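Lab meeting, item 3. Inverse folding demo.
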């Protein structure tokens, strides 16, 4: 009698093993504190493999980020392309533009088997990225942000593009906080329990749309009222 035994999962190739180990270490201790030696040990490879596949720690960091960001950005552009084909001229509807930008973040949090690690990785990226990350962030996010800022300009032409870009960034921050971190919806003080992520996404789109449609901020700072405290 032939036994019907499940085949063991194939071991990841060297590059994938390094990426898996690096992502886990970066998520746990951050990009700055992560050591290549720990990643090598966790991946079960030698140090030369890091240099062969990625060149440096900076190259490894970008590869880890790209592996997670690229599918999200590809999905965003697919949704935006479809929307623009449906509306070749004139204004674009604002809420569908925002959904094309925000839904892939929601899908990334829902589909991955290592969602907790993904949340920590995004948190590390947001908290640790500074001016020295400019080139990396421009490569990974710049083209998509430019496309969506242009789409928002078609949807809300009365708002200047620099303001739209800033508000799009605000919307992304809210999406990462709420959609990649559902425990934030079970706030210990605010009455947010019982909200599923799909409802949160729909509410976030309405919230972001209202902010993007708002009148632009004044170009001059408001004067402080007399008697106001410093």
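The presenter then showed the designed sequence:
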């Amino acid at each position: 009698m032939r036994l019907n035994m499940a085949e063991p999962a194939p071991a990841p190739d060297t590059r994938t093993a390094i990426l898996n180990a690096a992502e886990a270490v970066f998520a746990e201790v951050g990009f700055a504190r992560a050591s290549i030696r720990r990643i090598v040990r966790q991946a079960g490879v030698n140090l030369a493999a890091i240099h062969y596949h990625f060149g440096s720690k900076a190259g490894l960091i970008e590869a880890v980020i790209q592996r997670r960001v690229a599918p999200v950005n590809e999905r965003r552009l697919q949704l935006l392309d479809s929307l623009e084909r449906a509306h070749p001229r004139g204004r674009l509807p604002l809420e569908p533009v925002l959904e094309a930008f925000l839904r892939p973040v929601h899908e990334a949090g829902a589909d991955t088997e290592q969602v907790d690690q993904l949340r920590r990785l995004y948190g590390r990226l947001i908290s640790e990225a500074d001016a020295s990350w400019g080139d990396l962030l421009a490569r990974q996010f710049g083209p998509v942000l430019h496309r969506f800022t242009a789409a928002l300009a078609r949807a809300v032409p009365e708002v200047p593009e620099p303001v739209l870009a800033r508000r799009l960034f605000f919307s992304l921050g809210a999406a990462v906080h709420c959609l990649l971190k559902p425990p934030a919806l079970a706030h210990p003080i605010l009455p947010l329990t019982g909200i599923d992520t799909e409802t949160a996404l729909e509410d976030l789109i309405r919230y972001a749309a209202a902010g993007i449609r708002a009148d632009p901020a004044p170009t001059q700072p408001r004067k402080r009222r007399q008697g106001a405290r410093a």
